[in-house]
Amino acid sequence: MFVSFFPSPRLLILSAFVWTVLAMAFGYGVAGNLIGASAPGGVGVEIFWSASSLWFDFYFALCVAIFAGAWRVFAPHPWAPWSILGTALILFTSYFQVQVSVAINSWYGPFYDLVQAALSKSKPVSVEQFYGELSTFAGIALVAVVVGVLTRFFVSHYIFRWRTAMNDFYIANWRQLRTIEGASQRVQEDTMRFATTMEGLGVNLISAVLTLLAFLPVLVRLSSSVTELPLVGSIPYPLVIAAVAWSVLGTGALALIGIRLPGIEFFNQRVEAAYRKELVLGEDDPARSAPPTVSELFGAIRRNYFRLYLNFMYFNIGRIVYLQIDNIFPYILLGPTIIAGKITLGAMNQILNSFTQVRSSFQYLVNAWSTIVELISIYQRLRGFEAKISGEPLPSIETRTERFEIF
């Protein structure tokens, strides 16, 4: 899954982490004045081509070029341009889209304060001012649309190259792999599902981490407007602590409820593969696909799906209840502050958006757990392939006979 596309994956990840730390230390320390250690001021699209933003873009490209060049010399790999440079580009565009979200959040303050002033008639607001603020948002949104579409287009090609690398790797070792249960399905379908699932999960994970890094400082700054929380009272950085505690609680609870799902999904693929194989053999051999055999194989599918449905029911009860409460949770936190009139409409919307961004980043596992379950089962199946290639014992789940109990 990884060695086919990335040169020395473990060492690559370790070296990328170390290089990132060194580059950030140098960038925000020695060269801070050049790359703009502080965020550029202003609200609008001009922040994307300010001097500090352009210096950061140049510095990022330079660091990536040095890192990729070193790996090209140290460990040449046919897919390195896609795996290293492509990954770096995805990281950069994800960072850029997070900056777009930060820019929109900054726009919330003056715009909603302007709306509040117009509605309350506390100060004169002209039509030009109102539509000027909307045009500012339109400029930011246009940048977001262009970058978002181009990013998705590139990521789709990136993921298909990864699938191609896996496919070539497994086909080259087909003689060793052909005897494994469902070998053809694993090469054709599982590599495709692994690639497409990684596309969604990987990009969303990167976005969640970068969003968290970008909005935590914003939420810390905005926490100064909130002096107390319901039931808790006055604590340091109340919004940050509330967002982290609420998200960790939801993630932990739902992970516990859904702990059995990856194994059930794995056996789902096993019984589906056995049923498909029998039907395919029956196309050429009239002695195969006899009704009793097919009925028994389909019965295994039915029992496993019923187990899956039941476990997903428990999981979805917890998930839906949590997410519904989550919709009003920030308003519960801001209740005392709003009633006391300590913040304006613009500040409230900035806080709500920042809190939602931080909370959603921490809730990555909550929102993606169903997809993660599917990815784990695919990984387990492809891991059996790789164990066969390297001569290692098959993972225990490959040789275990599952009992199809409902509970």
Topology:
Blueprint: H1 9-28, H2 32-35, H3 51-74, H4 80-120, H5 127-172, H6 174-177, H7 183-222, H8 238-257, H9 261-284, H10 291-339, H11 345-362, H12 364-390, H13 396-399
Descriptive account of the structure:
With 407 residues, this protein is mainly alpha-helical. The chain has helices at 9-28, 32-35, 51-74, 80-120, 127-172, 174-177, 183-222, 238-257, 261-284, 291-339, 345-362, 364-390, 396-399. Helix 7 (183-222) packs antiparallel against helix 11 (345-362), helix 8 (238-257) runs parallel beside helix 11 and helix 10 runs antiparallel to helix 11. The protein is globular. The protein starts with 8 loop residues before the first helix and ends in an 8-residue tail after the last helix.
Category by helix and strand content: mainly alpha
Number of helices: 13
Order of helical and strand elements: HHHHHHHHHHHHH
Characterize the largest beta sheet: strand count, sense, and whether it forms a barrel.
none
State the distance separating the first and last CA atoms: 33 Å
User: What is the helix content?
Assistant: over 70%
Strand runs, count: 0
Range of strand content: under 5%
The 3D shape can be described as: globular
Rg calc: 26 Å
Average pLDDT figure: 78
Low-confidence stretches: 34-40, 403-407
In short:
This protein is mainly α. It contains 13 helices and no strands.
List descriptors.
407 residues, mainly alpha, 13 helices, 79% helix, globular, disordered C terminus
